[in-house]
Each structure stands twice: as structure tokens, then as C-alpha cells.
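Incident review: delayed structure delivery

Summary: a single-chain prediction request sat in the queue longer than the usual turnaround. Root cause was a stuck worker, restarted by the on-call engineer. No data loss occurred. The affected request and its eventual output are reproduced below so the record is complete for anyone auditing the incident later.

Affected input:
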Amino acid sequence: MPAACESVLEDIEDIVSAEDLKPHDRQFVRKNVFPKVRKRTSQKNVQTDDEPPSDSIIPGVQKIWIRTWGCSHNNSDGEYMAGQLAAYGYKITDNSAEADLWLLNSCTVKNPAEDHFRNSIKKAQEGKKKIVLAGCVPQAQPRQEYLKGLSIIGVQQIDRVVEVVEETIKGHSVRLLGQKKGNGRRLGGARLDLPKIRKNPLIEIISINTGCLNACTYCKTKHARGDLASYPIEELVDRAKQSFQEGVCEIWLTSEDTGAYGRDIGTDLPTLLWKLVEVIPEGAMLRLGMTNPPYILEHLEEMAKILNHPRVYAFLHIPVQSASDSVLMDMKREYCVADFKQVVDFLKEKVPGITIATDIICGFPGETDEDFQETMKLVELYRFPSLFINQFYPRPGTPAAKMPQVPAAVKKQRTKDLSQLFHSYNPYDHKVGERQTVLVTEESFDSNYYVAHNPFYEQVLVPKDPLLMGKMVEVNIYEAGKHFMKGQPVSDARVHTASISRPLAKGEVSGLTEEFRRSAQNGTNWKAQPSAEIPVKTRLSSWMALQLPWQQGGGGLKILSVSLALLAVLVMFYYGGMKTEL
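Output delivered after worker restart:
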């Protein structure tokens, strides 16, 4: 097989080309060929079964480095891809230098994120690494020049990452960018019961839907994720149950707009949330992701009740983007500032202490000084404890990129002014001296503390006592900063162990079905085991017979196409040892 294949395969089934011999043609040719006598090779030149031939490429034995940029939805996709590859036998490594292949999972929200992505591709090429691209950048614009000739796995095709990686390792360029459909409608994406490796074994990220119902003029993500497509409630509940059984104590619900959930399948977000809280064990918590104002307005009463539930964080991320109605109209945000205020005021009244996080874009095309001052007044009014400030970046292909732009210096100054206002107040000073219940789930960036969150999803740093990790404990708040508080565990406090099972080890694959485990034990899927422990002959025969359990009955590689491809290879070798008499 050649080291590389110049043509790009739009799907893996294209490996069997139209030029290959058909079964009938092969049968006809066989009548005119005669065996060629081969000389026996000496024993010392015979390759043993325990080592692969020096020129062989055996998928499943390589090391893969995965880098993900962007939102929690993207991070969940990255975890799923890592899990499938590890379950198949690949080694997921944190060392990019030792990796054979780089899987780069991109974000298209802002220019800097795409710049990092592009630079990583260049670095991988300079290091002679195999490359597979994923995420929103190649999904939205697969024909960009710097993506030419590289393999791409689409955002709805992550359950086929093993196939794409295998073909890439063999030198092919494969692009799977299609949408998943069922019963005539677009699906939320790949199955939720795929194997995954959680970045944090205590936190499960569940994407409840993909896409959205909006058409914001600045948004590139819409080009990649498309229109709203929601997962059924029963599948989401099953995923939550499975997560708790694997030691998870905190669930994040994520999507491009959680508030729009279910509108395409005849249900809604509150209905899903009430079903989920029924299965959350004591000591575990649920965090709701970002929701835009228009859709949450319809469910304010129910949302307030849910956010008051003891196992749901009293936290909501509601992007306002601007406090100017004219700017919001140019953005096509489908709400006005009064709608945002109605949502915030209602929730603050009905859910005492709730944390409202929001986003603001500085310097959107057409934004005047007066428009920006309205935004400054809004921040001064609500003093948001969590505020994501973004300087506007025109994204290629979006309507906003074609609008008259605000000068770069003005955008930069407005971003600076808003940042100064945000840092002028300390939202947690009044909480010093309080006794709070917190759930400990992470380690701080400086590795000096463990990170916990109180019922309002406010960050509390606690001592690095391994006994606290994954536990819900009571602490006394003794210090407050801009983005955090510090707490000391109360000596007589009760400690809740949230999960019904011990958490998985870091890097351990979750979500392996009993079907997969049985097939691994029976040897029909050798790659669930460390590759080096399996003789090469066994590996090759098992690989050729393999169909991934999570692809059976789904959108996996067609077995017929695989058989034909392998048959074509065998015919090539067969004819190589024979001569034709005309």
C-alpha cells in the first residue's frame, strides 16, 4: 500500500473505487491465470507472528494527543472521542511530542481560538505528525486552504472517530461531515452512551441538544452546529444515571442554547430538568448551562422552582451581549433589554442569592458611544459576579463581518473600560464569616487548593485534603477575592459522599457497555485490551472482523464495503504471485 493517498476520500466507503475489479470480472480473469512457482525462503528470513512486518501499519497501537478549544459542548465531544479511541486500543497521551497523531478539536467563536488551531496544525505538520481535525472550524468551512488534504471528523460524526483515525494513520485523507438523521428529522448527534474519558472523573458534561433557533449576525457556530436538534429525555436521564454509577458527583448540562431544548421534539427544558432531579443522588449537584432570554421567558415560574431545588445550583448563564436595543436588533438577538431585565429581576426575587452570569460584546458594528454607555449602566446596576467580556471579532462568512466596523482602537478602549468597571467591585466581601455547604470537585490552577462550589455555584477554595475530593462538606468562609472565596472545613460538619460508586481513575474509559466488555473478554474486540499484549496475528484477524459495538445498527462503516476493500487487497497480493498467459 502506498505511504499516502493523494485523493481525498469523502467517506471511508470510497476506498473501494469504481475502477476496482467486480466479482464477476475477477471470476473471468481467474480462468486465464496459472500459478507461479515460488522459491522457499530460509527460516531465518521468515517473520514471526509476534512482531509486525517492518512496513506494516497496524491501527490501534499508536499514541494520540487530543487538544480541545472552546465551550463545554466541545469538551464533551473531545471526551467522547478520547474514550472511543482508548477503548479501541490507542494510547491517549498528554505528551504531544511523543504522539503519532494529533486530534485537534477546534472552536470557531473568536479569531484567536481559530488562530491557535491553525498554528497547531502548522506545528503538527512541521513535526511530521498525522493529523485529524474536529470541532466547529472545519465543520463550518471545510474548504479553507490550510485544511486542504487533512482528515476531518464532523461535529455530528464523532462516533466514527476510530475509523477516521485509522484511515489517517494509513495515509488516507478522510472527511465525514454529514448530519445524523432518524425518522425524517435531524438528530442531536452521536449516541450518548459512547465510551468517553472524562477530563475530570467527578464531572459529567451532557449535551442536551445541538444547534439553536437563532440566526445571530456575528455567530459562526451556527454554521457548524446548525439548527436545533434535541436528544430525547429518556436518553439524557439514562446518561445521568450511568454517570452517577461511575462515581460522578456533578453534572453540567450544555448546548448552544439550553433554553430552546425540546422545542423540536415536543417537550421543553423544565420537563427535562424535573426528570433529571429525580435521579440525582444526595450530595450530587446539577449545573444548567447557557440559555438565551427569549426561550427562558416562557418558563420563568418553573425555572425558579427548579433552581430552588437543593440538588440544582442556583446559577444561570444568560448572555445579554449589549444593553442597547438597536445593537441587539443588528445582532438579531430576538429580545430587547427589557426582556433580559425581566428574566434577571424575576429570578433574583424568586431564587434568593442566585448567581446570574452574562456575556457582553464590545464594539459590535454600529455600536455608538451612547449604546456602550447603556451597557456600562446595566453592569453597574446588576454588578454581575461573573461577566464574560469579549471584544468583537468579525468572523468570515457572517453578516456582521460585512457591516461597517467600529475602529479597532475604540473596541479596545471599550473593552478596557468595561473590564475596569467589572473589577471595581467585589461580589463576595459580604460573605466572609458565613458557613456554607460546598461540593469539592477540582484542583486549582496553581495546585495549592482544591476547588469547591457552594449552592450558588460560587467558587470556594479549600485545603488540599484528599479526603475532601468528591465530597460535600461545610466550611467557614474566612477570605474573599474577586473570583473566589476561601473556606476552612468545619470540624464537626457532616460529610456527604455524593456518588453511589467510587469514581473512575483519571484517564479510565467510562461508558463501556456490557456488550463491549463481553466482546473484549471473548477476544472479538482485542483493542479494549492493551495492544502490546496481543500477538500480531490475533490482532490482525480480530481487526478485520471488528465492528465497533456502539456502531452496530447505527451509522458505522458498512461491513460490505470493508469486506470488498479487504478482498481487493487480497486479490492484489494473489495476482502478484501469478503470471498470466494470453
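Verification: The domain at 63-179 is CATH 3.40.50.12160 (Rossmann fold).
Action items: add queue-age alerting; document worker restart procedure.
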